[in-house]
Amino acid sequence: MKITVLSSSTTHPLFRYLEGWVQRANAQHNVDLVQSKNDLTNGDILFLVSCSEIIDEKDRIGYTNSLVLHASDLPLGRGWSPHVWQIIDGASEITVSLLEAENKVDTGRIWHKIKVAIPPTALWDEINHILFTTELALMDFAIEHSGTIVPQPQGPETTPTYYPKRSPNDSRIDPEKSIKEQFDLMRICDPDRFPAFFELKGAQYAIKLEKIDEK
Prior knowledge:
Strand content: 25-35%
Largest sheet: 6 strands, mixed
Shape: globular
Order of helices and strands: EHEEHEEHEEHEHEE
Distance between the termini: 49 Å
CATH topology of the largest domain: Rossmann fold
Number of strands: 10
Oligomer: single chain
Radius of gyration: 19 Å
Number of helices: 5
């Protein structure tokens, strides 16, 4: 099977997971990992994973199936960084969806969903590991079922919801509020890409959470 994985940024924490998956998958398939739609060719499956480009129909035409990984229970949570917004809102579990790519983002038919628990003490890297390994499992599912799957439309009885794109300012901590009140926001902030921070007495300070060995 000929497969292309498009993931835009080599600095995204997911990328090293994809590199490992591609290395394993190449034992049985012909798999390319690319960072730009300009590198797309043709094949059986195109996976769009943490892809920041708009991939329209003319970009997908060379592939039998073009699939997206999205960390929400679609049609709820369309848009950007869905797992982050959900955890900030207090979610204790996340649904990861495998769906067909369409010109209108996050509207395609569903191939499969996996629901995973998010421990209340998990920090951003632990949460990433849970979600990224789930996404890889969905990619394995897609390969195994690509010839037999019957995709299902997103529930027409459910009104879609949408999340905005995150900015660095969305990691702002209020120094007047307690740590407990803001813990979910603090624990989801990637200290390298979107560090939690607060302003006090005219200066800005970054916050990095690390677990201490209980022993």
